[in-house]
Design brief:
Length: 281
């Protein structure tokens, strides 16, 4: 399992249990690894196609597994003594269409889910994990500095028409999320242009721009009963780069329900490109 030496200053009391981390793609797992958790050790299972070396170096126990190998994954955490888990990073949902890559426990969870929408799958996973003695933590518990507070995140303010588009886009995004379809909607001049499904936020933004050109307003939202143990909508420099590329007008996210990565650099780049970003309640 590739146990690593303790990090400097990471003396652990005898009753300290490792935090189990299911690490998908993207920056969030690495950000977690950088945070001081009072010397709590980390047992990491990476399910990303390209595990990040920094994450491997920070972990006390590290394994790289396919996203569909859930039984083996829980075995790693059991052997490490971890009972609390946190799931961070993007997960390849395409595995749902590749059943040969799913182990028997993944197939069991899939059969128990009411639908194959994200929230239904997440609840089925949580039920199975809890039945096996594991708890899954709200991601915001371990990354509070990333949570967006209400208000403008950039200097630019929207005019009356822009505010109308932002309010409308957010309302639509919340409804799309409630239906467990996706989280992102793009609007231009009061017209819905694109709705995210399985392709992801960045692809939906590009599709909207292909249809409507520049000036789109993008909203990203969650359903009212969203389960933050499995997913916190996240915006960062990658999404900003796409918004700038397509000459979007604004991005609106939900306050207290969204992670913002690299906030200072995000603000600086958005301001330089005349993009408004706001966190709404």
């Amino acid at each position: 399992m590739s146990p690593n030496p303790r990090r400097p200053g990471s003396a652990v009391t005898e009753d300290a249990r490792p935090l189990g981390v299911i690490a998908g793609a993207g920056r969030l797992p690495v950000v977690l690894a950088r945070v001081d958790h009072d010397a709590r050790p980390l047992a990491v299972v990476s399910i990303s196609n390209d595990p990040q070396p920094e994450l491997r170096a920070a972990a006390d126990v590290f394994r790289h597994l396919s996203v569909g190998k859930i039984h083996e994954m829980l075995g790693v955490f059991h052997d490490a003594g971890a009972t609390e888990l946190v799931i961070l990073g993007a997960v390849d949902k395409g595995v749902l269409f590749r059943p040969k890559q799913l182990d028997w426990l993944a197939l069991k969870i899939l059969a128990q889910a009411k639908t194959r929408g994200s929230q239904s799958l997440f609840h089925a996973i949580a039920d199975e994990f809890e039945a096996r003695g594991f708890t899954v933590a709200d991601q915001r518990t371990y990354l509070p500095p990333l949570v967006a507070n209400a208000g403008a995140l950039t200097r630019r303010r929207l005019g009356r028409a822009g505010r109308r588009d932002a309010e409308y886009a957010l309302r639509l995004a919340r409804e799309v999320a409630r239906l467990d379809i996706g989280q992102t909607v793009a609007v231009k001049d009061g017209t819905p242009v694109a709705v995210e499904a399985m392709e992801g936020t960045d692809a939906a933004i590009r599709r909207a721009a292909d249809l409507a050109g520049g000036g789109i307003v993008v909203a990203k939202a969650t359903r009212p009963d969203h389960d933050f143990r499995f997913d916190v909508p996240t915006v960062g420099l990658d999404t900003l780069g796409v918004l700038v590329e397509v000459e979007a007008s604004a991005l609106v996210v939900e306050a207290n329900r969204t992670f913002v990565l690299d906030r200072d650099e995000l603000r600086e780049r958005a301001d330089a490109n005349g993009l408004a970003i706001l966190a709404a309640t």
